[in-house]
Specification:
Blueprint (H helix, E strand, L loop, with lengths): L1 H35 L6 E14 L4 E6 L6 E2 L4 E6 L1 H23 L6 H33 L5 H30 L3 H25 L3 E3 L4 E6 L6 E2 L4 E18 L11 E6 L5 E12 L19 E8 L11 E5 L1
Antiparallel strand pairs: 1-8, 1-12, 2-4, 2-7, 3-6, 4-5, 6-8, 8-11, 9-10, 10-11
Length: 334
Amino acid sequence: MNQNISQEQKANRSLLITMGVVVAAVAIIAIVGFLFMNRPDSYIEGQVEGTNIRISGKLPGRVMEFYVVEGDTVHAGDTLVHIHSSIVEAQLGQAEAMRSIAEATDKKVDAGTRSQIVSAAADLVRQADAAVTITEKTYRRMENLFNEGVVSEQKRDEAKAAYDAAVAARDAAAAQLSLARDGAQKEDKAAAAASVQAANSGVNQVEAILEDSYLTAPFDGTIDQIYPQVGELVALGAPIMSLLKLDDRYVVFNVREELLNELRMGTKMDVMIPALGKKHIDVEIYYIRDLGSYATWRSTKSTGSYDSRTFQIKARPTEAVDGLRPGMSVVFEQ
């Protein structure tokens, strides 16, 4: 029995020695690894951005056709979309008709008083009265909506300008009617010429709005996003699509203020673009701005530390980089 106890003690002692050796080996490996391992470099991550504008116009209407799709590269002046407005085109027809009447009256004012001239002038007055009635109602409606805070002051002023123009056109038409009835005088000729000028101004105003029936690209770029679909109605000033400028790319970083001593205006940085096969490019800082108190790093200790503000840094590539697109990640290793 004593012999069995002695063998059991020897086995336990051997097990303890083996465990001790294993623990010691693990500890030695851990210590060596901690001493010789390569610590990762600290880095700052940002992203690529670019100038992006929204294409919109002053013509409310229906989208008839797109001449581009998302991702297309366009040049300045290229036609992007066709917007049709039957209301504005009807207004153009009305303005051109009023101009024709004014021109005809101006040409015939020296021929004396004719029944046809009087009738045409009377028609012009009736049309002008109808225009005054419509524009006055629109103006009163806009005035009420402005007082209620529904529409902007600019909308109210535009309605007032349209009403004033209609009143002026009516007065000119009334003068033409009086001219036709009383016969041609020197003053009558001047009034007829003024009527023609007023009618031309009305046509030019509507044509200026219709210019936006075909929207064009203001600069070379890439179609980033198209918002409405063909057949949809768009309001005045509503964005139709966004255009990304081709030759404007820059990188953006948000950094703590401790790093500003190394990152100053004009400083060149070597950054890495993971999306381009970890390609390294040089960028130059051209913009530094405080992001405000909402981006402040707050200290978690009551003593021995301090708050640190966050600054935004923008830098442009020193050379053109093929394939560089907004949204790509950018890494700056310190």
